[in-house]
Amino acid sequence: MTESTPEPTAPGARRYVQVALNLPLRREFTYALPPGVDASPGNRVRVHFHGRKLGGVVTEVADTTDLPAQKVKVIESLLDSELSLPPSLLALARRMAQSYGCSIGEALDATLPSIAKRRGQRKLPHLELMAAPDVAHKAVEELEERHQAQSRVLRTVLEFNGPIPVADLRRRTKTSDSPWKTLVKNGLLKRVMIAEELEELVPSLDEAAERHVLNDHQQQAVDEVTAYVERAEHHTFLLHGVTGSGKTEVYLRILEEVRARKKSAIVLVPEISLTPQTVGRFASRFPDVAVLHSGLTDSERARQWQRLLQGKATVAVGARSALFAPVRNLGLIVIDEEHETSFKQDSTPRYHARQMAIERGKIEGAVVVLGSATPTLESIGKARRGIYGLLTLPERAGAGRQPQIVVEDLRGEPKDSLRQGVVLSRTLLAMMDERLKARDQVLLFLNRRGYSPVLLCPACGEAVQCETCSVSMTWHHRRGRLVCHWCCAEQRRPTQCKTCQSESMFELGVGTERLEEVVKERFPEAVVARMDADTMAERGAHERVLRAFRKKHIDVLIGTQMIAKGLDFPDVTLVGVVSADTGLFVPDYRAAERTFQLLHQVAGRAGRGEKAGTVVIQTFCPDNYAVEAAAKNDYDSFVKQELVFRKVTGSPPFARLLRVLAEGRHERDAQQILREACKPLDTMKDVEVLGPAPAVIAKVKDNWRWHMLVKCYSQDSFDEAMGAIGTVEDLATRTCRVTLDVDPSSLM
Ligand code: ADP
Ligand code: ZN
Ligand code: ZN
User: Fold this and answer.
1) Which domain holds residue 257?
2) Which end of the chain is more exposed for a tag (fewer CB within 10 A), N or C?
3) Ligand 1 proximity of 730 Cβ (cutoff 6 Å)
4) Cβ pair 405, 371 in contact under 8 A
5) 241 Cβ closer than 6 Å to some ligand 1 atom
6) Does the residue 243 lie in any domain?
7) What DSSP state is assigned to residue 104?
């Protein structure tokens, strides 16, 4: 990328621009262009702002300004126009700012690829081991007492087993830059600049994209969507198809139609690394796919952007942010697994890719297709009211049949095995035995990592808590540490209870690590692998395990929700859900919906090939309607009951929620700020304000968390409420952070 001195066009003429900066200030700033220089909306510029140099985006150009001319600063430079934003994306950023209460600059920041933000940087800083591994291992131990963050950083680099990008390291360890810098200074780590290897970027898993003759349901879906594409008319469709019904095949065919009309498309998937097979199918069917991966280096990302801008690539596949890919002549946006929470960004701007996809579709006359086996209540509601077109695929395509589902009531298990905490019911054990003898593969799902989620004193009932968060720490046996899953802090296992000095601590509950141990003991012959955030710490581990599983080098795969999505392995004939109940009692109005979705998705991994599949769902709550409906594979009955619950509790889709969260050193400040923030809402019609109340996780890293929930029972009241508190973040103080979350996906 080049940074050019602006070239004069018509000597003498002077124009003014409005510039949006990536700051939480909800206004734009006026700058002058150098005499004779012209710019257009979407151009990126560098400007001086209160002693800093910032990058910004031009939103408007004018010949005059109301400000006194001598007060208006001249921009410092006009950046390479090749990566300037098309007008449609500028318009999208405006709508995002309006919808989610952020500044246009913040919204634009989400739409720009990082290459446009960090100019000219071709390589990324990585960290690698400088000391010998045994020295480093020893240092991890030694640092633990007094320099925990350093210890954590060093161990993570060791586990990664290769140069790890600094950004990646920070994310994994939740640390700042100072721990790794100290380790570099002390000669344990080395900082290196490298470009990431490219072959890792397109996950293919040897996926052959066989082209099938469509069944009638599939054909009808393709035809209906294509008709709108043909007319370049925006419309949103919900493609509701049971797992294995051939939704991906439908997307691929619609894409063929889109490309035949010289249009382009964007396909959003929940997470590239978790859906390698789906991504592989797109990449192998079309030669001109740009995969926008979060692991792309800046230069690689810039290259993909160029390909899209120049029309050399016509299909962009990626996670949430690929929605802003600068494709030309957009005809279609697909959101696969539209119910996934990863489509909602959990930092500013807190947008939902589904809503923004529809906005982009409206702006550019593109068709939006939302696909899921378990659509959200919001989406199915809109489809039933005719706002979205409803396309249904009621049965599995090809060889697969819906699996048989067995609900195993754990209340009938012997007390001994329950007390030990490890519950593989007799039924599940017997089936595993049988399937493994037949050389089939088994998936075991448990959505909780670590060895046991609680370390409890049996004498007084106290659990070991994180020192700075209000959560209990998870015991990780192999690592020999208690870990806080909120702030990543670690502790040694205490030898006695802090409260009553009793000397036996008790491991309560089961995580994937303990489950793995039990399965290995019980089936010594079987090859068992585990897939969770802990075992996937090494680079490339995810793909290696999936490939080994595909080649049948693994008999039993144990995993968290990482294994629930999109995987298609024909020899999996048994899926065991070790506990259907882990998510049921989470204090969130979506607990039942999430449980149903997860159970349905996991169950969908069984019986995808020629052989019949069985799913065993273990539960203490067999009568819970989410469990019951999942067991019967009955989406409609779940929706019906859930809607009653939502109506009674005034939850979405009967209301829209705004959440205001205040996090600070002093509880009183947090409450005070919240009260002030929500005061204007008191008298509004159709608006209900709850709180302030402590958040479910009342404290993280010594910051107290309080929140208020605003329920808006009509679109008008929602707009009015947004108008009143859309800038609530301005109330933040030095010790208290305030965030507004529109349609929050988490209430924790
Ligand atoms: P979904 O995305 O709905 O879970 P997939 O698109 O992965 O379903 O399809 C499931 C399986 O069925 C895949 O192996 C796919 O190749 C196959 N399949 C899809 N459509 C057809 C069809 N019309 N005829 C035969 N097999 C099909
Ligand atoms: Zn005790
Ligand atoms: Zn913590």
Assistant:
1) 208-393
2) C
3) no
4) no
5) yes
6) yes
7) H
